[in-house]
Specification:
The protein is of the alpha/beta class. The chain has 15 helices and 15 strands.
Length: about 375
């Protein structure tokens, strides 16, 4: 199979879909790889590294998309990229379709087979290709929030760890999954007072067993969110419903009761965000203020630490890339129900139920889509 790796074009996105090590693995298995020139330059992976691993370097993304049987990326294809996709081609990348009707429409029109990293599952029902970036984003959320709390950046001037004689900052994490746990760990490491909210009693018990009194665990309801968000200096939105739009758990009217200069970091922004006032921002212009509350809603947070993120992501994705290339997409998807859970669009049909529901399309089960 011929695998193509274009350079990412989203704002301040330097990650790349394959490392030279991944290229070498694919070529050793008899596949060919074309990589757009300078695709990994921003993280120290130069054309020479890819050529030495066996890749062919091409000058334009258009050539990558024209020649590749499977395109491997990191972020969702931008409109110009969607228009280069075609029927019979496979796209393997993050998609986050539920809050993105334009991308969904363009993928449907392209006729491509689009497999989303974020909905591939494993035997435990976890999301192995989302996990590494969730770990990065969770840890970064505290780093970004601490920075935004500094007075020159619009915050109320609170040092999360405090100092002797001065209370530490209060951090509330909504969601006890991978993002939330990594955020809480970073916040505790900085010395903050940490509350994690979740609707799963089992998750709360698990966190209490792991972290004890250092982490306060609270069952998440509208009332408890009201109470704890109002006390917080920093609120992390870490809610995930796989493949679906994130629920709006903090309403605009609640902001008026928050501390002046408090900060919210919405890690769920890729799925539309869990704060009613959230809108996607970029690393170039990461924040805005609503009712004197600073909002950090960067949709590709791990892109800021692109080298770490690339290696963490490609460690997880490479086995699936090898599987798709070795068996061919159809056989790989038919044989592996966990990979099949990643199929979101196939030949003009929406094959992921939450996306179909949220965007008003007819849902076609993958098995039915293949049969057609």
């Amino acid at each position: 199979m011929l695998i193509g790796v274009p350079k990412e074009i989203k704002n301040n996105e330097y990650r790349v879909g394959l490392t030279p090590a991944g290229v070498r693995e694919l070529t050793l298995h008899g596949h060919s790889v074309v990589v757009e020139t300078h695709a990994g330059h921003g993280i120290g992976l130069d054309n020479e590294h890819y050529e030495k691993a066996g890749a062919e370097i091409v000058d334009t993304a258009a050539e990558v998309f024209e020649r590749a049987e499977m395109v491997v990326k990191v972020k969702e294809p931008q409109p110009d990229e969607c228009r280069m996709l075609r029927e019979g081609q496979t796209l393997f990348t993050y998609l986050h379709l539920a809050p993105d009707p334009e991308q969904t429409r363009l993928l449907i029109e392209s006729g491509t087979t689009a497999i989303a990293y974020e909905t591939v599952t494993d035997r435990r029902g976890a999301l192995p290709l989302l996990r590494p970036m969730s770990e990065v984003a969770g840890r970064m959320s505290i780093q970004a929030g601490a920075y935004c709390l500094e007075r020159p950046h619009g915050g109320n001037g609170t040092l999360l760890g405090g100092v002797p004689g001065v209370a530490p900052g209060k951090v509330v994490v909504i969601g006890g999954g991978v993002v939330g746990v990594n955020a809480a760990r970073m916040a505790m490491g900085m010395g903050a007072e940490v509350v994690v909210m979740d609707r799963s009693p089992d998750k709360l018990v698990e966190l209490d067993d792991l972290y004890g009194p250092r982490m306060k665990t609270i069952f998440s309801t509208a009332d408890s969110i009201d109470e704890y968000v109002h006390q917080a200096d920093l609120v992390i939105g870490a809610v995930l419903i796989p493949g679906a739009a994130a629920p709006k758990l903090v309403r605009k009217e609640q902001l008026a009761h928050m501390k002046r200069g408090a900060v919210v970091v919405d890690v769920a922004i890729d799925q539309g965000g869990c704060f009613e006032t959230s809108r996607a921002t970029t690393h170039q212009d990461p924040t805005y203020v609503v009712d004197e509350v600073v909002h950090y809603c960067v949709a590709n947070m791990p892109g800021a630490v692109a080298r770490t993120s690339t290696f963490a992501l490609t460690n997880a994705t490479l086995p699936f890339v090898l599987q798709l290339a070795g068996l061919g997409p159809r056989q790989a998807l038919e044989c592996d129900p966990h990979l099949r859970a990643g199929l979101n669009v196939h030949r003009g049909q929406v094959t992921y139920e939450a996306v179909a529901r949220d965007l008003g399309y007819d849902y076609v089960a993958p098995e039915q889509a293949f049969g057609g």
